[in-house]
Every structure is written in C-alpha cells, then in structure tokens.
Specification:
The structure is a homodimer. By secondary structure, the first copy, chain A, is an alpha/beta fold. Helices cover about 40% and strands about 15% of the residues of chain A. Chain A folds into two domains: about 5-45 and about 300-405, Aspartate Aminotransferase, domain 1 (Alpha-Beta Complex), CATH 3.90.1150.10; about 70-295, Aspartate Aminotransferase, domain 2 (3-Layer(aba) Sandwich), CATH 3.40.640. Chain A has 14 helices and 14 strands. An eight-stranded mixed sheet of chain A has the order 2-9-8-7-6-3-4-5, with helices on both faces. Chain A has a four-stranded antiparallel sheet with strand order 10-11-14-13. In chain A, strand 10 and strand 11 (about 335-340) form a beta hairpin. The termini of chain A are far apart. Residues about 415 of chain A have low confidence and may be disordered. Chains A and B meet through helix 1, helix 2, helix 3, helix 4 and helix 6 of A and helix 1, helix 2, helix 3, helix 4 and helix 6 of B. Chains A, B: Its cofactor is pyridoxal 5'-phosphate. Chains A, B: Homodimer. Chains A, B: InterPro entries: Aminotransferase_I/II_large, Class-I_PLP-dep_aminotransf, PyrdxlP-dep_Trfase, PyrdxlP-dep_Trfase_major, PyrdxlP-dep_Trfase_small. Chains A, B: This is 2-aminoadipate transaminase.
Chain lengths: ~425, ~425
C-alpha cells in the first residue's frame, strides 16, 4: 500500500461499489446482452420533442440565469409548481418545506449526513435499495433490517428490532421505507400499515424517510391511486421526510428530485447541499419546470403506467411459461421490478457468470439485504427492454436457471414462443 | 428543541451556511442591488446560440442514452476529449485517471470524504475558498491555515504548521491550494513554489489537492500561459489530485468538472460518487462534450480573458480613483476576484449592513480565514457585472467605506466620472 492509499479515511478505505452500477458497466458496449439489471426507464417513452422545444425556448438567452449558478434550494418556480402537485397527493406543505436535489440519491445522502453519526442505527426493509444502503454505509451507519410480509413491513419485527437496538444502547435515527412498488420487491405497503408506521414514529420518536420514486407508476389493472397515498400525506407533526423524483417519469438526465420535510430540516439540508454540489443544474430544473407547466408530465403518466404494466405482463408470462416450477415471484402492481426467488441453495451471484455467458444480466439478491441473506433471489427490471427483448432475455435466463436447478425444459411450451 | 432536531448528527447540528451563498440570496430579486459577491461568470459571454444548436441536435432522439442514467465515472467521450486538453497543459494522464463530477464542489466534497476522518488535519491557504472550507468542515476536518506571501504560500510557515500538527499527534491528510488566481485573493503561486510543493509532498507524504477553476482565465497583459502550469503537470508519483471545471468558462449550469488522480483514488471516488448522486447529467455532459469538439470552448477562452481583464481594469481604476487612501489591493493577473484590505479595526461583516443599504454587496473577508482573522478584508467579484455597473457599484462602496473609515471624499476626482 502506498502512503497515498494509507491516507484514506476509514469510510474511504471501506468503499465498495454498487452491484447495480457494476451491472450497468458490464452491460455497456455489448449490444446483444439483454440487461434486466439497472432500473432504467424506457427511453422510447421520453418526450424527446417536448424537451427539444423547451430547450430551444430556454436557450434563446431571454433569461440570463438559465445558464448561471442557481439557488442551492432549487429553482423557485419549480418548487412552486411542485407544491400543488404534492397537495394533490395529500401532502400539504409550503415551498419552505421543499428542497430540490440532484436526483433522489443526493437526497438520501444529504438526509443521512444530516442525521447519522458513525454507529447510529438506520432501519431498512429486508430487502431494500442498494443505493440507499451505500449512502447509509458511507456515513458509518449500522444498518438493521426489518422483514417484509405480503403487505409490507412486519410491524412486530420492527418493534422487536427497535427494542433490541435500544437495549444495546444504540441510537436509532430513522426508518427508511419505499412504500410504493418497493425496490427491489415491487411490493406495496398497505394503507393500514402506513397509518401504523406514523403512530410508531410518534410513539418511538424515530423519523421515517419515505422514498417514493415509483409512486406515480401504479398499474391501473391491479392498483388504485388511493392505495399509493404517501405516508407523508397523514404526517401532521414532521415525522416523515418524503423523497420524490422525476428520474422514472420524465427522464433520469435531469437529475431533478425533491425532499419534503419540516423547515428546520430543509434549512440544514440546504447547507449540506451547498458543500455537496453548491446547486443543481439551472437548465435541467427549468426544463423540468416547463415539462410540468406545459402538461408534459401529466400527459406522460398514463402512457407510462400502460407501458410498464404491459412490460410486466410480458415478463411475468414468459417467466410463467418457462420457470413456474423453479422460481417464485409476485407480479408487481406498479414500478419497474420483478423479484424472483429461486430454490434454496442457488446462489444468484455465482449464477451471474453463466447468465453473462448466455447474454442476460440481472442484479443478484444478496446486495439488497443488510443481514447477509437473499442469496437465492434476484431482481429483474422489466422497464427498459422492449417486449421482444424481454421474452428473449427470459428465455436465456430460464436456460441458465434450469441448468443450475437441474431441471429439464418445461414440458408445456408457451403458445407463440 | 424537538425530538426531530435532537436526532441531528454532530455535523448536522453544526451546519452553517456559506457566506457567499447567503449573499446570493440577499441579491436575488433586488434589481438595483449591485452584487460583487458571488463568483458568477458574465452571462453575456455564454455561447447561447452554440448551446441551442447543440441541444437541438442532441434532443433529436438519435441516441437514447442522452436522457438516460449515465456511468458514474462520467460520459466516456467527454473524458476522452478532456485527456488531450490536460496533456496540452502538461498533465499526462489516461482516461482511467479522470472522473467527471457535478461541479468542482462535488469533487472537493468527494475527495474530502475519501480522505478525511473527523479530527484529521487539512491544510489550507489563508485565506481560501469558503465552499472548500464548508466541505472540509462537514467531514469533521481540523482546518489549519498557512499564510500567503506575494508569490503564494509561505513555505516556511507550511513547514512550521505541519511540524506543529504532527507534534500534537494529528494526521495531516492533504494541503488544499488554488495556485491560479486564487479565490479570494486573485494571487498566483510562483513556479518555483509549485516545484517546492511537489518536493514537500514527497518528503512529508502529504497529498496536494490542486483546485484550478480559473487557470484558463489568465490576463494576457500581465500573465504568460506558462506561469499557470499546474502543479499536477510535474507530478510523476501521484501526489497531486487536480480539479478543473467548466463552470467559469462554458457555464455553471452544466455542473461539469473533473478530477485527475491516480487510478486507485479515482476508483474510490467513483464509488463515493455513486452514493452521492449516482451520476451527473447525461445531457449536460454531452453539451459540454460537443462544446469542446465543436471548438466552442477554444473560441471562448480568448474572449473571456479579454472580457475579464477589461473588467478588472474598470474595477481597479474605480477603486484607485475613490479608495486609494483607505484600501489596499493588488490587481489580479487572472480570474474573477479583487481582494481589498481596509484599515485595521474595520469589520467588513458589520459594514455589510450599510453596503446593502447603499445597494452594493461583497463577501466579507473573515469567512475565508480558518484562523479567525480577515475581519478588515473583503472580496469583490468583477466578473458578472457590466462595466457601468462596476463603476456605479464601486462608487457606492467607496461611500460606505469612506464613511466607516471617517475619510472625506477623495480630493482628485477621476477623469470621466
């Protein structure tokens, strides 16, 4: 080790990359590889022409601030446009309770830095989003997992885990949850449990960080809008920090998301963001603002719900045809992901090598678990690939999985394949 | 204090905002206020039409990745375009030694997180950039200042400071320097001292973080290109982490900067960036890439040097005419800033109230000093305001300063005013 490397901080020395991002790198530049790995939106759904028109208008030079540094808090007209949208979701807030961030990942990171000292406990779902795990770990958090049931978090386990951490003298800073179309399970937290979590937060004085990138993407055939009501909507006492993003609806490039939290929290997140990146892109925030005020986002949402519901069907049917005897999954009611559980003893990380040889990739389950379990699970994103590529990819994956399980080909081929 | 506020981390509870950003907020929405506070480039220099043409081409939808998530490391063609430009500056590196960041502020933050544990020492110039100070403090660094002389850092003081910190048992992680047109002094570090710093780094095994946002903006009348040669250009052994930005040359909105460092450092910065914001904007990085390959940046640079040299002249002449007897300054040889020292006993923070009433603002000196000094200094950015606004603003400021010092109006009015 060089003296330069010996200079790393404790966290710096421990940094390990995201499994999902690494899959993205593997996928780059292999045209025939079918990637179900990253949670990328379908680029064919992007409103290209609308963004082109908007950019053309913005870059005429009429407003010199368009290319300048902006306020750290974010572009004020965008905040003003977001507030009534939040209200329509049931979240009553003022513009002082909103901060725009460089994607939701930055929001997770800033919230973590604001609350977590090394050794503090963050409670997470088992499994949960790897990007959040990475941000929590980089602040030195102790991560403790809470099991999930069919309708979301196991509240008895939550109580038990909290009690055990407190009995050990540790400070529990917040519970991180993704109630809508959870990453990676695709599950949805029941309304009864959402209300119970608010009571739990008040009783236990533990904050809830509610990450909601997929809430707008409910599938009309199986989900009602009211089932996606944010926990934050019923939070009268500032117990919930709510995160929402445009990356899954408009486009990831704009890196535009927002945090809704009490003003005292927002004011400090603002300061934390100053040292993180000074401000987000003025142009990108203006494009998102125009996409909202010109109705682009509202026109996109029904299209996106139909598109991703259809892709879920394609993937789910292909899996049913080829893997019903060797894999379990619950078709998701929204979002981007289908979570597959293989028989005990299969290690989906080890299986990736064969999958890559078969030109298909997924994200192995274990990185989503903070308790070392999940080896036999995997996450499939049906969001980005076309229907025909989804069918082809599941065919490839089925071959890999069946070979690993020692199963022969399924006896009844699916019509049309 | 609510239980939510009692949950803040130690760093979170200490967060204090940037003096510069607060000045920006003060300035917002007051059309007649003349701001010399933030280091904003002149928006009339932005290549609006070129960006409009580039955006129009990029948003035709020919490359679906344009609006998608990108690699954390950055848009590969932009990295490939940056490497030969670095080589032209004397910095020989491969693309594996470059990481693109969301502005240089993110680079400072990521480097800090990679190296600094709470209590570790970071050495900085007296005075230095407040945004860097904020990032260092948010990682719990102990900041120790090194005096500057007319040709930059006082090397004897550097040795003394290092020895004292080590004698106290502290780990010194890096020296942060801005060799070209330093923020806030506008000074330039001599070539002899640059070489001496490299020797110092090798001898003492302390890294150098070289922040160079202004290096391209040397003023042809008083500075030669070779005087801006980066320290990194002569670093054969990976002792220097070099930061460069497009915010002061193309435009701040693109939030596009880069770090040059040994591959082992870049690999970990990549992981740290994953949890900070996943990736920077794909569209913004493509606009910057096109601005480079289409020659926009190279056409801009001579124009920018002339523009900012002329503005320096305007401000310097106005100060000479109105404040020569009550203020000291050295006209800078590049960059955006003019650093003014008032008589001892004047507190420029207290003076800001009168300045705001007179509709002119600057940044007080003290926040740039980590040792509690600098109360009688102030930083003026001549970059953003027009020539006539600079003259008007210095007139207003002169009135405020002269009143505070107790001096009457200068006896010889400047011709033309």
């Amino acid at each position: 080790m060089t003296w330069q490397e010996a200079s790393f901080s404790r966290m710096g020395a421990q940094l390990t990359g995201s499994a999902i991002r690494q899959m993205g790198i593997l996928a780059a530049g292999r045209p025939d590889l079918i990637s179900f790995a990253p949670g990328y939106p379908d680029p064919s759904t992007f409103a290209w022409q609308a963004y082109r028109d908007i950019a053309d208008d913005l870059l005429r030079g009429g407003h010199e601030d368009t290319l300048q540094y902006g306020q750290t808090r974010g572009y004020a007209p965008l905040i003003e446009a977001v507030v009534p949208r939040l209200r329509a979701q049931g979240i009553t807030c003022t513009s002082d309770e909103v901060l725009l961030t460089t994607g939701s990942q930055q929001a997770v990171d800033l919230v973590t830095r604001l609350f977590v000292d090394p050794g503090d406990v963050v409670l997470v779902e088992l499994p949960t989003f790897t990007g959040a795990i990475a941000a929590f770990r980089s602040s030195g958090a102790r991560l403790v997992g809470v099991r999930q049931e069919a309708d979301g978090l196991d509240l008895a386990h939550l109580d038990a885990v909290l009690a055990a951490e407190r009995a050990a003298g540790r400070r529990v800073k917040f519970l991180y949850v993704i109630p809508n179309f959870q990453n990676p399970t695709g599950g949805i937290l029941s309304l009864a449990k959402r209300r119970a979590l608010l009571d739990w937060s008040a009783r236990e004085q533990v904050l809830i960080v509610e990450d909601d990138p997929y809430g707008d993407l409910w599938f009309p055939d199986v989900t009602r809008l009211d089932e996606t009501r944010p926990i934050k909507a019923d939070d009268a006492d500032g117990r919930v920090i709510y995160l929402q993003s445009t990356s899954k609806t408009l486009a990831p490039t704009f890196r535009t998301a927002w945090v809704v939290a009490p003003t005292a929290v927002i004011a400090r997140l603002d300061v934390a963001k100053q040292s993180a990146d000074l401000c987000s892109s003025s142009l990108d925030q203006r494009i998102v603002h125009q996409a909202i005020v010109r109705g682009v986002l509202d026109r996109q949402l029904p299209l996106l719900r139909e598109t991703y519901a259809r892709k879920r069907d394609v993937m789910s049917r292909a899996l049913s045809a080829q893997c019903a005897d060797v894999a379990h999954w619950t078709p998701p009611r929204g979002g981007f992901f289908l979570w597959v559980v293989l028989p005990e003893g299969i290690d989906t990380r080890a299986l990736l090598r064969a999958a890559i040889e078969a030109q298909v990739i997924y994200v192995a389950g274990a990185p989503f678990y903070v308790d070392g379990t999940g080896a036999n699970a995997l996450r499939l994103a049906f969001s980005a690939a076309s229907a025909s590529r989804i069918e082809e990819g599941i065919g490839r994956l089925a071959g890999v999985v069946r070979a690993a399980v020692g199963a022969s080909a399924p006896s009844v081929p699916q019509a049309g394949r």
